[in-house]
Give the backbone structure.
Amino acid sequence: MAIRTTENGSGRAGGGGRVTLRTIAQMTGLSLSTVSLSLRGGTTLKQETRDKVAEAAKALGYVPDRAGVRLRTGKTNVIALVLDGAEDSIDFARQMIQGIGHAIKGTRYHLTVIPEFERNISPDTVRYVLDNRTADGVIITHTAPRDRRVQMMIDADFPFVSHGRTEFFTPHPFHDFHSEVFASTAVERLASKGCKRAMLVVGDDTTTNHHNIVTAFHRATARTGLEPRIMTGMQYLPPTEMRRMAMELASEPDRPDGIICDSEMRTIALTGGLMEGGLRMGQDVHLIYKQTSGILPTLFPAVDSIREDVFAAGVELTNLLLRRIEGAEPETLQTLAEPQPQWRN
Amino acid sequence: MAIRTTENGSGRAGGGGRVTLRTIAQMTGLSLSTVSLSLRGGTTLKQETRDKVAEAAKALGYVPDRAGVRLRTGKTNVIALVLDGAEDSIDFARQMIQGIGHAIKGTRYHLTVIPEFERNISPDTVRYVLDNRTADGVIITHTAPRDRRVQMMIDADFPFVSHGRTEFFTPHPFHDFHSEVFASTAVERLASKGCKRAMLVVGDDTTTNHHNIVTAFHRATARTGLEPRIMTGMQYLPPTEMRRMAMELASEPDRPDGIICDSEMRTIALTGGLMEGGLRMGQDVHLIYKQTSGILPTLFPAVDSIREDVFAAGVELTNLLLRRIEGAEPETLQTLAEPQPQWRN
DNA sequence: TACTACAATGAAATCGTTTCAGATATTCCA
DNA sequence: TGGAATATCTGAAACGATTTCATTGTAGTA
């Protein structure tokens, strides 16, 4: 039982059965070039020939060899997802990948995933893709205001799209959750519930998202008259610590009566700590969190949330990227996702 | 600002700057073949030549072109992960991918991910990989007893490894969580807590895992004298339904006083329902769940769990697969992961 | 010196595809 | 009827790497 890599003494590629352009050429009696031209819609060919070729290709189940195409044209038909290791948004990776998968279904694109280990994003993986022409385009997430990966790809004029905005002057494709609307909607909701002191909990202060959300929070609390408070920069804080902090918070004299949290993981730690501290959710304290998975609603059916649809984000990011690869201008490839309030009480 | 795909009128690949074998050949004054031979460790070459080539390659930062290698040798240097859409194990996808990523770091392998949408696994995606020689090996998860994907790859003699065992006679590489040990350990723990009626909740009854765990559960309850009860086949049941069922369960006259659950998602639904039904976890009812993420411990620091390290599983699966690709015998590539009890009270 | 043995290197074929420059027919017009 | 203008199709040359086979050079031997 020889395995594939050694099944062929010469070390050459492919089995005898593989259908190539040559197969079709022999079958139809045409030349290689005619077949190739025909398959890619050559207009100088007789209609009869084109039908013949198309028919044969279909009958044989021809699929262009990726290596051949790639070698000749430089097109990889691959898009790369740089997957951040953050676990703030539960189920983020799975949904994002499913979304991308859904969007490339039926296209010739494959998805390669490049896991990022460092929490402090480094441009190395992107540099690798650029240097080795390993993909036709890149999707990155958790974008920073002056993200070095973005800078690098702009400089190289390489197609990419970011999940998150940046502060660069040169426009680039992005799709982002509308954090500002999230923050203001949440604050207004707290105000309508009669809250007086609002606290915003944003874990990671390195992303652009952080800046947007904080600004919008300040603006909204000023407008509604709530007393603002912010807890941030905790990307390295383990959940257990977070939980402990929440417990202590529960017994503070002027503790917040309304909390907004943009991370599911932290919401869980928060909730656990607050409840252990003796507070009743939805009575002593109101909570609104950014929801990306189905976990928290299952657990706390009565807690308000504002949803970001990560699957849809994956689909959108992919569509933007594909359009970019086909040459669309960056300015036309920038979209925001509207937060979806899920008021539950 | 032309984008990459059109930067070159001829439509040819690569910029002028790309370092190929030819670059090295010109630099060293040697021929293409000598350089190639040398780089792949040709022993018939003079040491001096070999040093010269190695030096030049390093200086130029030479990396073999994947398309070239693939076209000539048929080797893709890609491994494919067929990613099941199940969300029972929270954070499964992320950790699995991180694990694989860790294992291929430093190798020439890339990872492509093929999301699976149908909950009822179809062999189409695997067939595609096989037909189009899209990867050198495949990793599949959520394996069924007579998994058609496994059958297909065995028949095609294609390198793969499954996360989960099967019932096929022909041996194949696998790595699996030792569910039997999980079940018996959990039952024993419940017994030691004084439980009388144990319920096993396993969501998906299509996997091999299901069968293993149920068998072991029966054996262990018989051994310890616990009254067994099983809740299963709920792969299509939404969490909210599950939660409702748990709530009803709470008020049953002969309700279980010990529960074992192999899915985090269902554990959450269960816990939510039981608590809403008035039960106190760890007092009225004991719960032990299979833990794959950090979510539940954060939420319920006092609830027992038995951990499966999905990251480690990813690493192991990859190593097995790479060995298989290199020709190792399937029999030698079968491992089990020991469950890691996390007793917390 | 002539012949063999062996080490070191090079030339060429190949993988599958695309594309450009030619090569055949075929048709048109004077 | 000849030459040009059109239609269709083909040949050949890449893209980058690997591998086989041939060639060169050198040394050893009789």
Q: What stands out?
A: Confidence is low (pLDDT under 50) at residues 1-15 of chain A. The two ends of chain A are 64 Å apart (CA to CA).
